[in-house]
Specification:
Helix 5 packs across helix 10 and helix 8 packs across helix 10. The termini are far apart. The protein contains 10 helices and no strands. The chain is mainly alpha-helical and 170 residues long. Bound molecules: heme C. Heme C (HEC) binds next to helix 6 and helix 7.
Length: 170
């Protein structure tokens, strides 16, 4: 009887130590964490898939606040990059691109004497502050097929300052 009892205890001890070794080499808590991190990454990916990036941004940007610190003078300087192709004066001359006088709030592709690309003709939107903001970041991405060959202004601040200046052209 005693013999049996001892051997049962020994077996139990061995099993117990096996569990301990298992815990040391394969800590279950960590494994759990790894899983939960990767699943939350998956969730974020899923969310991003559902909404295109620009839409996400649009929801996040508060345009009223964005223009509080807009700098007109800096915008005027940046507009020199546009002036090679666009007339910024009231004279509204056609250059490589259409004139930009009173462009903010204007319907797109409205200049009668300018031959717009099909893409811009089909855009059919108003040049609101929001649309200009996203267009000027990367024109070709925003309106694919546009014939405006311009790399865009990557910095949000530059676009805000420029649009602040464009607003004054009226
Ligand atoms: C290399 C020449 C070039 C430069 C530089 C350029 N543009 Fe353009 N832009 C064009 C052309 C060409 C079009 C007509 C695009 C089309 O028809 O697809 C255009 C179209 C536009 C339109 C649409 C106008 C409308 O009537 O619907 C806006 C707004 C605009 N440009 C703003 C700017 C601003 C602001 C800058 C400076 C940051 C700039 N562009 C720089 C050539 C240029």
């Amino acid at each position: 009887m005693n013999k049996y009892f001892l051997s049962i205890i020994t077996v139990l001890l061995i099993i117990q130590s096996l569990f301990l070794i298992d815990d040391i080499f394969f800590p279950k808590k960590n494994i759990k964490n790894v899983y939960s991190v990767s699943s939350s990454v998956e969730e974020i990916d899923k969310k991003n898939e559902e909404k295109p990036l620009s839409k996400n941004l649009k929801n996040k940007i508060d345009f009223d606040n964005l223009f509080i610190n807009a700098n007109f003078e800096k915008g005027k300087k940046i507009a020199k990059q546009c002036a090679g192709c666009h007339d910024l004066e009231k004279s509204k001359k056609i250059k490589v691109g259409p004139p930009l006088w009173s462009i903010v709030g204007k319907q797109s592709a409205l200049e009668e004497n300018f031959e717009y690309s099909e893409s811009l003709k089909n855009f059919k939107k108003e040049w609101s502050v929001e649309n200009l903001y996203f267009f000027l970041e990367n024109p070709k991405n925003y309106i694919s097929g546009t014939k405006m060959i311009y790399k865009g202004l990557k910095k949000s601040e530059d676009r805000v300052n420029l649009i602040q200046y464009l607003k004054s052209l009226k």
